[in-house]
Design brief:
By secondary structure, this protein is an alpha/beta fold. The protein has one domain: Metal-dependent hydrolases (TIM Barrel, Alpha-Beta Barrel). Helix content is 30%, strand content 22%. The chain has helices at residues 72-81, 101-111, 133-138, 163-170, 184-196, 202-208, 211-228, 240-252, 262-266, 269-275, 288-299, 339-350, 356-369; strands spanning 4-12, 17-25, 28-33, 42-44, 49-52, 54-59, 84-89, 118-121, 123-124, 144-147, 176-180, 231-234, 256-260, 305-306, 387-397, 416-426, 429-433, 436-437. The strands form 3 sheets. Strands 1, 2, 3, 4, 5, 15, 16, 17 and 18 form a 9-stranded mixed sheet that branches. Strand 7 (84-89), helix 2 (101-111) and strand 8 (118-121) form a beta-alpha-beta unit. The chain is globular and about 70 Å long. The two termini are 29 Å apart. The structure holds zinc ion. Zinc ion is lined by residues 58, 60, 90, 309, 311.
Protein backbone atom coordinates (compact mmCIF):
# COMPACT_ATOMS: atom_id res chain seq x y z
CA UNK A 1 0.00 0.00 0.00
CA UNK A 2 1.13 3.54 -0.73
CA UNK A 3 1.66 6.02 2.08
CA UNK A 4 0.06 8.84 0.10
CA UNK A 5 -1.58 9.39 -3.28
CA UNK A 6 -2.00 12.76 -4.99
CA UNK A 7 -4.71 12.29 -7.58
CA UNK A 8 -6.37 14.20 -10.44
CA UNK A 9 -3.25 16.33 -10.94
CA UNK A 10 -1.85 17.84 -14.08
CA UNK A 11 1.71 16.52 -13.91
CA UNK A 12 4.44 18.88 -15.11
CA UNK A 13 7.82 17.38 -15.96
CA UNK A 14 10.66 19.23 -17.65
CA UNK A 15 9.38 18.05 -21.03
CA UNK A 16 5.66 17.22 -20.77
CA UNK A 17 2.35 18.18 -19.19
CA UNK A 18 -0.22 15.39 -18.72
CA UNK A 19 -3.05 14.36 -16.38
CA UNK A 20 -2.24 11.77 -13.76
CA UNK A 21 -1.48 10.88 -10.17
CA UNK A 22 1.55 10.10 -8.04
CA UNK A 23 1.91 7.39 -5.41
CA UNK A 24 4.37 7.76 -2.54
CA UNK A 25 6.03 4.98 -0.52
CA UNK A 26 8.71 5.47 2.13
CA UNK A 27 9.31 9.07 1.11
CA UNK A 28 9.99 8.18 -2.53
CA UNK A 29 7.95 8.42 -5.69
CA UNK A 30 6.59 4.89 -6.16
CA UNK A 31 4.19 5.38 -9.09
CA UNK A 32 3.39 8.07 -11.65
CA UNK A 33 0.56 8.44 -14.14
CA UNK A 34 -2.14 5.83 -13.56
CA UNK A 35 -2.05 5.05 -9.83
CA UNK A 36 -4.51 2.46 -8.51
CA UNK A 37 -6.45 3.64 -5.46
CA UNK A 38 -5.35 1.11 -2.84
CA UNK A 39 -7.01 2.79 0.13
CA UNK A 40 -3.96 4.91 0.99
CA UNK A 41 -4.46 8.46 2.28
CA UNK A 42 -5.30 10.57 -0.72
CA UNK A 43 -5.20 14.27 -1.60
CA UNK A 44 -7.32 15.37 -4.54
CA UNK A 45 -5.46 18.11 -6.40
CA UNK A 46 -7.94 18.35 -9.24
CA UNK A 47 -7.06 20.96 -11.79
CA UNK A 48 -3.73 21.84 -10.23
CA UNK A 49 -0.28 21.56 -11.71
CA UNK A 50 1.95 19.15 -9.83
CA UNK A 51 5.66 19.92 -10.27
CA UNK A 52 8.66 18.09 -8.87
CA UNK A 53 9.57 19.81 -5.60
CA UNK A 54 11.25 23.02 -6.71
CA UNK A 55 14.83 24.00 -5.90
CA UNK A 56 16.13 27.46 -5.02
CA UNK A 57 19.84 27.07 -5.77
CA UNK A 58 21.02 30.39 -4.29
CA UNK A 59 19.95 31.62 -0.84
CA UNK A 60 21.59 33.33 2.12
CA UNK A 61 19.91 32.22 5.34
CA UNK A 62 22.64 33.97 7.33
CA UNK A 63 23.51 31.38 9.95
CA UNK A 64 25.90 31.27 11.69
CA UNK A 65 26.55 34.86 12.61
CA UNK A 66 23.81 37.06 11.20
CA UNK A 67 20.62 35.82 12.83
CA UNK A 68 19.70 39.50 13.09
CA UNK A 69 19.08 39.47 9.32
CA UNK A 70 17.54 36.06 8.71
CA UNK A 71 17.37 32.55 10.17
CA UNK A 72 16.77 29.05 8.86
CA UNK A 73 13.61 28.82 10.98
CA UNK A 74 12.04 31.82 9.27
CA UNK A 75 13.41 31.58 5.76
CA UNK A 76 12.98 27.83 5.31
CA UNK A 77 9.33 28.08 6.35
CA UNK A 78 8.97 30.89 3.81
CA UNK A 79 10.51 28.56 1.23
CA UNK A 80 8.01 25.81 2.04
CA UNK A 81 5.04 28.20 1.86
CA UNK A 82 6.42 29.48 -1.43
CA UNK A 83 6.62 26.00 -3.00
CA UNK A 84 10.37 25.44 -2.62
CA UNK A 85 11.42 22.05 -1.23
CA UNK A 86 15.22 22.35 -1.48
CA UNK A 87 17.52 25.33 -0.89
CA UNK A 88 21.26 25.64 -1.47
CA UNK A 89 22.71 27.95 1.16
CA UNK A 90 25.63 30.28 0.51
CA UNK A 91 28.89 30.39 2.55
CA UNK A 92 28.85 34.15 3.08
CA UNK A 93 26.80 36.44 5.22
CA UNK A 94 28.02 33.87 7.70
CA UNK A 95 30.39 34.54 10.58
CA UNK A 96 32.69 32.78 10.13
CA UNK A 97 32.43 32.29 6.38
CA UNK A 98 32.03 28.63 5.40
CA UNK A 99 35.59 28.22 4.16
CA UNK A 100 36.77 24.98 5.83
CA UNK A 101 35.30 21.53 6.40
CA UNK A 102 35.27 22.16 10.15
CA UNK A 103 33.19 25.28 9.64
CA UNK A 104 30.84 23.36 7.37
CA UNK A 105 30.35 20.78 10.10
CA UNK A 106 29.69 23.47 12.71
CA UNK A 107 27.16 25.09 10.38
CA UNK A 108 25.42 21.75 9.79
CA UNK A 109 25.08 21.25 13.57
CA UNK A 110 23.68 24.72 14.03
CA UNK A 111 21.07 24.33 11.28
CA UNK A 112 20.01 20.75 12.04
CA UNK A 113 16.38 20.59 13.12
CA UNK A 114 15.64 24.15 11.99
CA UNK A 115 14.73 23.72 8.34
CA UNK A 116 11.29 23.08 6.87
CA UNK A 117 12.88 22.12 3.54
CA UNK A 118 15.87 20.03 2.49
CA UNK A 119 19.11 21.90 2.06
CA UNK A 120 22.69 21.66 0.90
CA UNK A 121 25.65 23.95 1.50
CA UNK A 122 28.10 25.82 -0.67
CA UNK A 123 31.73 26.23 0.36
CA UNK A 124 33.75 29.40 -0.10
CA UNK A 125 36.15 30.10 -2.96
CA UNK A 126 39.03 32.51 -2.40
CA UNK A 127 42.82 32.03 -2.49
CA UNK A 128 43.27 31.40 1.24
CA UNK A 129 40.91 28.41 1.15
CA UNK A 130 42.07 26.61 -2.02
CA UNK A 131 43.72 24.01 0.21
CA UNK A 132 40.36 23.30 1.88
CA UNK A 133 38.23 22.82 -1.24
CA UNK A 134 38.68 19.06 -1.58
CA UNK A 135 37.82 18.47 2.06
CA UNK A 136 34.76 20.72 1.86
CA UNK A 137 33.70 18.74 -1.21
CA UNK A 138 34.11 15.52 0.79
CA UNK A 139 31.91 17.08 3.49
CA UNK A 140 29.13 17.76 1.01
CA UNK A 141 29.73 21.19 -0.52
CA UNK A 142 27.68 21.31 -3.74
CA UNK A 143 29.70 24.17 -5.24
CA UNK A 144 32.13 26.92 -4.24
CA UNK A 145 31.15 30.57 -4.24
CA UNK A 146 33.57 33.29 -5.20
CA UNK A 147 33.31 37.06 -5.68
CA UNK A 148 35.29 38.68 -8.47
CA UNK A 149 34.66 42.01 -6.75
CA UNK A 150 35.03 43.21 -3.18
CA UNK A 151 32.10 42.09 -1.02
CA UNK A 152 32.90 42.35 2.65
CA UNK A 153 35.85 42.08 5.01
CA UNK A 154 34.45 38.73 6.16
CA UNK A 155 34.56 37.19 2.70
CA UNK A 156 37.73 37.82 0.68
CA UNK A 157 37.60 38.25 -3.07
CA UNK A 158 38.30 35.63 -5.69
CA UNK A 159 40.36 37.83 -8.03
CA UNK A 160 39.95 36.99 -11.72
CA UNK A 161 43.76 36.81 -11.98
CA UNK A 162 43.72 33.90 -9.51
CA UNK A 163 40.97 31.95 -11.31
CA UNK A 164 43.45 29.57 -13.01
CA UNK A 165 44.68 28.54 -9.54
CA UNK A 166 41.11 28.20 -8.28
CA UNK A 167 40.12 25.99 -11.20
CA UNK A 168 43.28 23.90 -10.73
CA UNK A 169 42.32 23.33 -7.09
CA UNK A 170 38.81 22.27 -8.10
CA UNK A 171 39.96 19.97 -10.88
CA UNK A 172 40.85 16.80 -8.88
CA UNK A 173 37.17 16.37 -7.95
CA UNK A 174 35.65 18.28 -10.88
CA UNK A 175 34.30 20.88 -8.44
CA UNK A 176 31.98 23.66 -9.52
CA UNK A 177 32.97 27.32 -9.16
CA UNK A 178 29.92 29.60 -8.71
CA UNK A 179 30.96 33.18 -9.34
CA UNK A 180 29.48 36.56 -8.60
CA UNK A 181 30.72 38.43 -11.66
CA UNK A 182 31.33 42.16 -11.49
CA UNK A 183 34.65 43.78 -12.32
CA UNK A 184 36.33 44.89 -9.13
CA UNK A 185 38.54 47.61 -10.59
CA UNK A 186 35.60 49.25 -12.29
CA UNK A 187 33.09 48.96 -9.43
CA UNK A 188 35.55 50.02 -6.73
CA UNK A 189 36.85 52.99 -8.71
CA UNK A 190 33.39 54.23 -9.67
CA UNK A 191 32.12 53.90 -6.09
CA UNK A 192 35.13 55.70 -4.63
CA UNK A 193 34.87 58.54 -7.14
CA UNK A 194 31.19 59.05 -6.52
CA UNK A 195 31.40 58.88 -2.74
CA UNK A 196 34.41 61.23 -2.69
CA UNK A 197 32.45 63.71 -4.80
CA UNK A 198 29.43 63.43 -2.53
CA UNK A 199 27.36 61.79 -5.24
CA UNK A 200 25.62 59.12 -3.18
CA UNK A 201 22.07 59.09 -4.54
CA UNK A 202 20.27 55.99 -5.78
CA UNK A 203 21.18 56.85 -9.37
CA UNK A 204 24.86 57.08 -8.41
CA UNK A 205 24.79 53.64 -6.86
CA UNK A 206 23.26 52.19 -10.02
CA UNK A 207 25.86 53.96 -12.17
CA UNK A 208 28.70 52.58 -10.03
CA UNK A 209 27.82 49.03 -11.07
CA UNK A 210 27.20 49.31 -14.81
CA UNK A 211 26.45 46.38 -17.13
CA UNK A 212 29.99 46.72 -18.51
CA UNK A 213 31.39 45.69 -15.12
CA UNK A 214 29.35 42.48 -15.23
CA UNK A 215 30.22 41.79 -18.86
CA UNK A 216 33.92 42.29 -18.20
CA UNK A 217 33.98 39.86 -15.26
CA UNK A 218 31.88 37.25 -17.07
CA UNK A 219 34.23 37.44 -20.06
CA UNK A 220 37.29 36.92 -17.82
CA UNK A 221 35.67 34.04 -15.92
CA UNK A 222 34.61 32.31 -19.13
CA UNK A 223 38.13 32.65 -20.57
CA UNK A 224 39.68 31.10 -17.45
CA UNK A 225 37.13 28.26 -17.41
CA UNK A 226 37.71 27.59 -21.09
CA UNK A 227 41.46 27.44 -20.56
CA UNK A 228 41.23 25.01 -17.66
CA UNK A 229 38.29 22.88 -18.77
CA UNK A 230 36.72 23.44 -15.35
CA UNK A 231 33.04 23.81 -14.47
CA UNK A 232 31.79 27.34 -14.00
CA UNK A 233 28.38 28.58 -12.83
CA UNK A 234 27.62 32.27 -13.30
CA UNK A 235 25.47 33.56 -10.46
CA UNK A 236 22.54 35.97 -10.90
CA UNK A 237 23.04 37.10 -14.51
CA UNK A 238 21.40 40.51 -14.61
CA UNK A 239 22.03 41.71 -18.14
CA UNK A 240 21.49 40.23 -21.62
CA UNK A 241 24.98 41.27 -22.79
CA UNK A 242 26.48 39.00 -20.12
CA UNK A 243 24.03 36.26 -21.12
CA UNK A 244 25.13 36.62 -24.75
CA UNK A 245 28.73 35.82 -23.75
CA UNK A 246 27.46 32.72 -21.93
CA UNK A 247 25.44 31.67 -24.97
CA UNK A 248 28.54 31.94 -27.18
CA UNK A 249 30.71 30.10 -24.64
CA UNK A 250 28.21 27.24 -24.41
CA UNK A 251 28.26 26.97 -28.20
CA UNK A 252 32.07 26.62 -28.03
CA UNK A 253 31.76 23.80 -25.50
CA UNK A 254 32.79 25.74 -22.38
CA UNK A 255 31.42 23.95 -19.31
CA UNK A 256 29.40 26.91 -18.11
CA UNK A 257 25.92 27.17 -16.58
CA UNK A 258 24.05 30.22 -15.36
CA UNK A 259 21.21 31.44 -13.19
CA UNK A 260 19.07 34.55 -12.91
CA UNK A 261 16.47 35.85 -10.46
CA UNK A 262 12.97 37.36 -10.53
CA UNK A 263 14.35 40.82 -9.71
CA UNK A 264 16.17 40.91 -13.07
CA UNK A 265 13.23 39.47 -15.04
CA UNK A 266 10.41 41.49 -13.46
CA UNK A 267 11.79 44.68 -11.90
CA UNK A 268 14.01 47.47 -13.25
CA UNK A 269 16.30 50.23 -12.05
CA UNK A 270 13.20 52.41 -11.92
CA UNK A 271 12.10 50.35 -8.92
CA UNK A 272 15.37 51.21 -7.19
CA UNK A 273 14.97 54.88 -8.03
CA UNK A 274 11.37 55.21 -6.88
CA UNK A 275 11.02 52.56 -4.16
CA UNK A 276 14.51 52.76 -2.75
CA UNK A 277 16.79 50.45 -0.87
CA UNK A 278 14.27 47.63 -0.48
CA UNK A 279 15.20 47.05 -4.14
CA UNK A 280 18.99 47.42 -3.74
CA UNK A 281 21.01 44.39 -4.77
CA UNK A 282 24.15 43.66 -6.72
CA UNK A 283 24.41 43.43 -9.59
CA UNK A 284 21.65 46.04 -9.59
CA UNK A 285 18.41 45.87 -11.52
CA UNK A 286 18.77 47.07 -15.10
CA UNK A 287 16.72 49.02 -17.64
CA UNK A 288 13.35 47.80 -18.90
CA UNK A 289 14.94 47.14 -22.28
CA UNK A 290 17.62 44.93 -20.71
CA UNK A 291 15.07 43.13 -18.56
CA UNK A 292 12.94 42.31 -21.59
CA UNK A 293 15.92 41.01 -23.56
CA UNK A 294 17.12 38.86 -20.65
CA UNK A 295 13.99 36.73 -21.11
CA UNK A 296 15.26 35.51 -24.50
CA UNK A 297 18.24 33.91 -22.78
CA UNK A 298 16.09 32.28 -20.13
CA UNK A 299 13.71 30.80 -22.65
CA UNK A 300 16.41 29.60 -25.09
CA UNK A 301 18.22 27.67 -22.34
CA UNK A 302 21.30 29.90 -22.04
CA UNK A 303 20.23 30.60 -18.45
CA UNK A 304 19.74 27.25 -16.73
CA UNK A 305 18.31 28.11 -13.33
CA UNK A 306 15.95 30.48 -11.55
CA UNK A 307 16.75 31.33 -7.94
CA UNK A 308 15.94 34.04 -5.44
CA UNK A 309 19.37 35.11 -4.13
CA UNK A 310 17.39 35.63 -0.91
CA UNK A 311 19.68 37.91 1.12
CA UNK A 312 17.60 40.14 3.36
CA UNK A 313 18.40 42.58 6.12
CA UNK A 314 16.40 44.60 8.64
CA UNK A 315 15.12 48.02 7.61
CA UNK A 316 17.83 49.72 9.74
CA UNK A 317 20.50 48.20 7.50
CA UNK A 318 18.62 49.42 4.43
CA UNK A 319 19.07 52.99 5.62
CA UNK A 320 20.33 55.45 3.00
CA UNK A 321 20.43 58.53 5.22
CA UNK A 322 24.05 58.07 6.35
CA UNK A 323 27.10 59.83 4.92
CA UNK A 324 27.49 57.18 2.21
CA UNK A 325 23.88 57.53 1.10
CA UNK A 326 22.64 54.70 -1.12
CA UNK A 327 26.15 53.20 -1.01
CA UNK A 328 25.79 52.65 2.74
CA UNK A 329 22.60 50.58 2.56
CA UNK A 330 22.67 46.79 2.66
CA UNK A 331 22.82 45.26 -0.79
CA UNK A 332 20.58 42.22 -0.99
CA UNK A 333 16.89 41.49 -1.01
CA UNK A 334 14.39 38.84 -0.01
CA UNK A 335 12.64 36.46 -2.39
CA UNK A 336 12.62 32.80 -1.40
CA UNK A 337 8.86 32.86 -0.70
CA UNK A 338 7.85 34.64 -3.91
CA UNK A 339 10.09 33.17 -6.62
CA UNK A 340 7.88 30.23 -7.61
CA UNK A 341 4.61 32.19 -7.79
CA UNK A 342 6.10 35.17 -9.58
CA UNK A 343 8.00 33.05 -12.08
CA UNK A 344 4.99 30.79 -12.74
CA UNK A 345 2.84 33.80 -13.54
CA UNK A 346 5.53 35.41 -15.70
CA UNK A 347 6.46 32.26 -17.64
CA UNK A 348 2.98 30.80 -18.13
CA UNK A 349 0.60 33.76 -18.11
CA UNK A 350 2.76 36.69 -19.24
CA UNK A 351 5.11 34.97 -21.70
CA UNK A 352 2.73 32.20 -22.76
CA UNK A 353 5.47 29.58 -22.32
CA UNK A 354 5.03 26.05 -21.02
CA UNK A 355 5.07 25.35 -17.28
CA UNK A 356 7.80 22.82 -18.21
CA UNK A 357 10.14 25.83 -18.27
CA UNK A 358 9.65 26.26 -14.51
CA UNK A 359 10.17 22.49 -14.00
CA UNK A 360 13.49 22.84 -15.84
CA UNK A 361 14.78 26.04 -14.24
CA UNK A 362 13.87 25.15 -10.65
CA UNK A 363 13.85 21.36 -11.02
CA UNK A 364 15.90 19.23 -13.35
CA UNK A 365 18.62 21.78 -14.23
CA UNK A 366 19.67 22.85 -10.72
CA UNK A 367 19.49 19.19 -9.59
CA UNK A 368 21.89 18.19 -12.37
CA UNK A 369 24.24 21.13 -11.97
CA UNK A 370 24.60 20.77 -8.21
CA UNK A 371 24.75 16.97 -8.17
CA UNK A 372 21.36 16.30 -6.57
CA UNK A 373 19.72 14.61 -9.57
CA UNK A 374 19.56 11.14 -8.07
CA UNK A 375 17.23 12.47 -5.38
CA UNK A 376 15.71 15.74 -6.50
CA UNK A 377 14.35 17.74 -9.41
CA UNK A 378 12.31 15.28 -11.48
CA UNK A 379 9.05 13.35 -11.41
CA UNK A 380 10.56 9.89 -11.76
CA UNK A 381 9.93 6.70 -9.78
CA UNK A 382 12.59 6.30 -7.10
CA UNK A 383 13.20 10.02 -6.58
CA UNK A 384 12.36 11.82 -3.34
CA UNK A 385 8.59 12.42 -3.13
CA UNK A 386 8.91 16.22 -3.19
CA UNK A 387 6.06 18.05 -4.92
CA UNK A 388 4.98 21.62 -5.51
CA UNK A 389 1.33 22.09 -6.48
CA UNK A 390 0.14 25.28 -8.13
CA UNK A 391 -3.43 26.31 -8.87
CA UNK A 392 -2.78 27.96 -12.23
CA UNK A 393 -5.69 30.38 -12.11
CA UNK A 394 -5.76 31.36 -8.46
CA UNK A 395 -4.76 35.01 -8.22
CA UNK A 396 -2.35 36.44 -5.67
CA UNK A 397 -0.90 39.71 -4.52
CA UNK A 398 2.40 39.93 -2.69
CA UNK A 399 1.98 41.68 0.67
CA UNK A 400 4.87 42.20 3.11
CA UNK A 401 2.76 41.03 6.06
CA UNK A 402 2.35 37.60 4.45
CA UNK A 403 6.07 37.02 4.20
CA UNK A 404 7.51 34.59 6.73
CA UNK A 405 10.93 36.23 6.65
CA UNK A 406 12.52 37.54 9.80
CA UNK A 407 12.02 41.03 8.36
CA UNK A 408 8.95 41.59 6.26
CA UNK A 409 10.53 43.55 3.46
CA UNK A 410 9.99 42.50 -0.13
CA UNK A 411 10.87 44.26 -3.38
CA UNK A 412 7.87 42.52 -4.92
CA UNK A 413 5.28 44.16 -2.64
CA UNK A 414 2.19 44.98 -4.66
CA UNK A 415 3.00 42.57 -7.49
CA UNK A 416 -0.01 40.60 -8.65
CA UNK A 417 -0.42 37.52 -10.74
CA UNK A 418 -2.05 34.12 -11.15
CA UNK A 419 -0.80 30.72 -10.13
CA UNK A 420 -0.69 30.26 -6.37
CA UNK A 421 1.16 27.55 -4.46
CA UNK A 422 -1.44 25.38 -2.74
CA UNK A 423 0.54 22.38 -1.52
CA UNK A 424 4.18 21.55 -0.77
CA UNK A 425 5.22 17.97 -0.07
CA UNK A 426 8.66 16.99 1.21
CA UNK A 427 9.66 13.31 1.01
CA UNK A 428 6.01 12.30 1.22
CA UNK A 429 5.08 14.61 4.11
CA UNK A 430 2.79 17.59 3.65
CA UNK A 431 4.82 20.64 4.70
CA UNK A 432 2.36 23.28 3.56
CA UNK A 433 -1.26 23.13 2.43
CA UNK A 434 -3.71 25.97 1.79
CA UNK A 435 -2.24 28.47 4.23
CA UNK A 436 -1.13 26.01 6.90
CA UNK A 437 2.50 25.11 7.59
CA UNK A 438 3.38 21.76 9.21
CA UNK A 439 4.11 21.84 12.93
CA UNK A 440 7.67 20.52 12.91
CA UNK A 441 10.60 21.23 10.58
CA UNK A 442 11.63 18.01 8.85
CA UNK A 443 14.16 19.31 6.33
CA UNK A 444 17.36 17.32 6.00
CA UNK A 445 20.88 17.97 4.87
CA UNK A 446 21.61 16.65 1.39
CA UNK A 447 24.98 15.05 0.48
ZN1 LIG B 1 23.95 35.82 -3.28
Amino acid sequence: MYDLILKHAVLVTDSAVFPGAVGVKDGKIAAIGEVADDGAPCIDVRGQYLFPGLIDCHVHFNQPGFDSRETFDCASSAAAVGGVTTVLDMPLNNRPATSTAARMEAKKQLIAGHSWVDYALYGALFPACYGDLAEMHAHGAVAFKGFTCDDSALFPMQPVEALPRAFAALKPFDGLAALHCEDDVMCTRLAQEKIAAGHTARRDYLDSRPPEAEVRAVRAALAAAEQSGARLHICHVSHPDAAQLIREAKARGVRVTAETCPQYLLLTEQDVLTRGMVCKCSPPMRTAEARDRLWDYLLDGTIDCLCSDHSPAPMEEKDESGPRGAFGAWSGLSGVQTTVMSMFDAIVHQKGASPCVLAQKMGSRPAEIFGLDRQKGRLVVGMDADFTCIDPERSWEIRPEDMRYKHKLTPFAGCRGRGAVTLTVLRGSVVYRDGVLSAVPEGKLLR
